[in-house]
Write a structure and sequence with these properties.
The chain is built from 3 helices and 2 strands; from the N terminus they run H-E-E-H-H. It is of the alpha+beta class.
Length: 102
């Protein structure tokens, strides 16, 4: 998981815990997971390993759309609630930074 505004967080653990709690609500099952966060790059991020079974010991089935879009949308909602929506200036600075890295 790489929150676009990850650099705003001193610690990603609470963010990831809230994200995974939201994911449990979305999937209607308790999830068994572990995560590690990295601040050693220009983009703070977390790696999440998710056990492939649900709380009834059945195969965990996650819809393709949730994997490709839903997870990103849920994380984006959480990040937006924390510091609030980004200003136009912040968005412009982010785009400039990305362009200069490429």
């Amino acid at each position: 998981m790489s929150a676009e505004d990850g650099a705003r967080y001193d610690d990603l653990k609470p963010l990831i815990q809230r994200f995974m709690a939201q994911m449990e609500r979305n999937l209607n099952t308790k999830l068994d997971w572990v995560a590690v966060d990295h601040f050693n790059t220009g983009h703070p991020h977390a790696h999440i390993v998710l056990r492939g079974v649900d709380d009834r010991s059945k195969d965990l089935v996650i819809a393709r759309d949730y994997l490709s879009n839903g997870m990103r949308e849920r994380l984006s909602e959480i990040v937006t609630l924390d510091p609030g929506p980004r200003s136009d200036l912040e968005i412009e600075e982010h785009v400039r930074h990305d362009i200069s890295e490429e």
